[in-house]
Amino acid sequence: MVNFGFLLGHYNYWAVVVLFLIGLYAMIVKKNLIKKFMGLNIMDTSIFLFYISMGDVEGGVSPIIAHGGGSDVIYVNPLPSVLILTAIVVAISTTALALSLIIKIYEEYGTLDSDRLVELM
């Protein structure tokens, strides 16, 4: 039997799966290069959400150790947040580079349709 409490309690993982599948659909089905890259950005966002969700601890606090802090305190792991911050910067740089290349492709070939580009090459 399906435990609906478990499924509803982990809705963020369902959001990750749905976002990833939407991005994958856009990457596979869409012919426009900009739409394909938007799908890739949606997939990036779903992975960011997944890592941040994994780093969350129920009842955890920020990993700032106060003077004389007790040992019974549960801390949140800061590593996923740091990694995702770096990944966001890389994703923004990749997006800027890809959009500039897409502009150059359009100027050269006059189309952004991937099938038409394969024919022209």
Explained architecture:
The chain has helices at residues 4-9, 11-29, 33-55, 79-109, 114-120. It has one domain: Helix Hairpins (Orthogonal Bundle). It contains 5 helices and no strands. It is elongated. With 121 residues, it is mostly helical. The mean pLDDT is 86.
Low-pLDDT windows of residues: none
- CATH topology assignment: Helix Hairpins
Order of helices and strands: HHHHH
**Count of discrete domains:** 1
Provide the structure class: mainly alpha
Q: What is the mean predicted local confidence, pLDDT?
A: 86
CATH hierarchy: architecture: Orthogonal Bundle
Radius of gyration: 21 Å
Biggest beta sheet summary: none
Fraction of residues in β-strands: under 5%
List keywords for this structure.
about 120 residues, mainly alpha
List the helices and strands and how they pair.
Layout: H1 4-9, H2 11-29, H3 33-55, H4 79-109, H5 114-120
Helix pairs in contact: 2-3, 3-4
In a nutshell, what does this entry contain?
The chain is mostly helical and 121 residues long.
